[in-house]
């Protein structure tokens, strides 16, 4: 009987510990809270690696203690196509970008290209890069939207 109670307690604890992790192969919002329980940031995150790493930490470590995020200003990608790509691809946004910083990084976090985005749709060309996994990092204030692109 004690073993059963121990196993149940262990399973419940494991579920609580993993509550803020995004399962591999899916996307979702991750929230960060201060000591008082106030939400201080949110990040749309796609976990395509099999382990929940925070691309903001890999690409832009530092600024994390700021005012709560305005959900209405959060950038959302409507569609990214074609993916996988041979080099040229398009990203369409639900809201227009307005001088929004954008990075293209490789799988190691090395910046391939930096640009400023405007409008509902942007075209990218990574034809000169090797085949592999690349990330489009769209910076919106202190929040980042990360989209994975596979180049064949």
TrEMBL record:
Question: What does the UniProt keyword field contain?
Answer: Signal
Lineage here is:
Bacteria, Pseudomonadati, Bacteroidota, Chitinophagia, Chitinophagales
Q: Name one Pfam family in it.
A: Por_Secre_tail
Q: Which domain of life is it from?
A: Bacteria
Secretion system C-terminal sorting domain residues are: 80-150
Indicate the secretion signal residues. Answer: 1-19
Entry keyword Plastid: no
Q: InterPro entries, from UniProt? A: Secre_tail (IPR026444)
Its recorded name reads T9SS C-terminal target domain-containing protein
């Amino acid at each position: 009987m004690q073993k059963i109670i121990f196993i149940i307690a262990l399973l419940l604890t494991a579920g609580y510990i993993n509550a803020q992790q995004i399962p591999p192969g899916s996307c979702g919002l991750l929230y960060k809270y201060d000591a008082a329980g106030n939400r201080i940031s949110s990040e749309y995150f796609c976990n395509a690696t099999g382990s929940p790493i925070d691309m903001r930490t890999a690409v832009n470590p530092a600024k994390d203690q700021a005012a709560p995020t305005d959900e209405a200003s959060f950038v959302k990608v409507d569609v990214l196509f074609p993916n996988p790509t041979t080099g040229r691809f398009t990203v369409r946004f639900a809201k227009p970008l307005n001088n929004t910083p954008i990075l293209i990084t490789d799988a190691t976090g090395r910046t391939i290209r930096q640009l400023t985005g405007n409008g509902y749709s942007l075209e990218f060309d990574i034809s000169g890069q090797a085949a592999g996994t690349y990330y489009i990092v769209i910076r919106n204030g202190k929040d980042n939207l990360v989209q994975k692109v596979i180049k064949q």
